[in-house]
């Protein structure tokens, strides 16, 4: 399969004017703000974006970003493979005022009429898509990472205080 390389930079307005496409893979190592939140930085993001102008004259960039990142489960602290399939639907705007007028279908992209880095564009969208508190969907996966699993030492610890408590109780209560 032919892997297309992405340009480092693009002018979003120009891309939209040309009905351009942006297709290829971007290494996660190109996305330092994202990698800072991950367990490991190997892997790549598959980028499939098209740009153009809709029926209302709104310039847009739309498509998908797909990758799988490794996060830390906040329940068991084990590693967690987290697939991301981010739907991108950005409306290009020049100002905050234009962003307010944007139709609800679009997320505003405040884009200067000059080149911006593709990595920044992709990274912002992925950061928004990360879960606030990542956890394994199935608790049994957490248990496989050692969460809440019966621990012999812990059980012994728990029994001891009950044992000494029982010896202090009057016979009537102990027999219950
Ligand atoms: Zn977990």
Description:
The chain has 176 residues and is an alpha+beta fold. It contains 7 helices and 7 strands; from the N terminus they run E-H-E-H-E-E-E-H-E-E-H-H-H-H. It has helices at 12-17, 32-35, 96-101, 118-129, 139-144, 152-168, 171-174, and strands at residues 9-10, 21-27, 44-53, 59-72, 79-93, 107-110, 116-117. Strands 2-3-4-5-6 form a 5-stranded mixed β-sheet. A two-stranded antiparallel ribbon has the order 1-7. The longest helix is centred in the last third of the chain and has 17 residues, at 152-168. The chain is elongated. It starts with 8 loop residues before the first strand and ends with a helix. It binds zinc ion. Zinc ion binds at residues 73, 75-76, 78, 135-136, 141-142, 145, 147.
**Biggest beta sheet attributes:** 5 strands, mixed
**Element-by-element helix/strand order:** EHEHEEEHEEHHHH
Radius of gyration (CA) equals 26 Å
**Distinct ligands:** zinc ion
- In total, the number of domains comes to 1
Give the spatial strand order of the biggest sheet: 2-3-4-5-6
Alpha carbon gap, first and last residue: 73 Å
DSSP helical segment count: 7
Question: Which regions are unreliable across 5 or more consecutive residues at pLDDT < 50?
Answer: none
Helix/strand/pairing category:
alpha+beta
> Strand portion, in percent?
25-35%
Query: Helicity level, as a percent range?
Result: 25-40%
Overall form: elongated
Mean pLDDT: 86
Number of strands: 7
């Amino acid at each position: 399969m032919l892997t297309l390389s992405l340009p480092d930079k693009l002018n979003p307005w120009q891309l939209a004017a040309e009905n351009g496409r942006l297709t290829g893979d971007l290494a996660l190592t190109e996305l330092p703000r994202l990698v800072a939140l991950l367990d490991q930085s190997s892997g790549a993001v598959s980028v499939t974006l098209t740009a153009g102008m809709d029926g209302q004259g709104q310039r847009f960039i739309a498509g998908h970003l797909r990758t799988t990142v490794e996060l830390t489960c906040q329940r068991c602290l084990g590693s967690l493979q987290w697939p991301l399939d981010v739907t991108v639907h950005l409306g290009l705007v020049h100002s905050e005022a234009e962003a307010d007028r944007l139709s609800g279908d679009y997320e505003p992209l405040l884009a200067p009429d000059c080149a911006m880095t593709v990595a920044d564009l992709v990274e912002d969208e992925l950061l928004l898509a990360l879960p606030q508190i990542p956890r394994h969907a199935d608790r049994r996966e957490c248990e496989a990472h050692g969460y809440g699993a019966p621990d012999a030492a812990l059980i012994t610890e728990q029994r001891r205080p009950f044992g000494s408590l029982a010896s202090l109780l009057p016979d009537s209560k102990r027999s219950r």
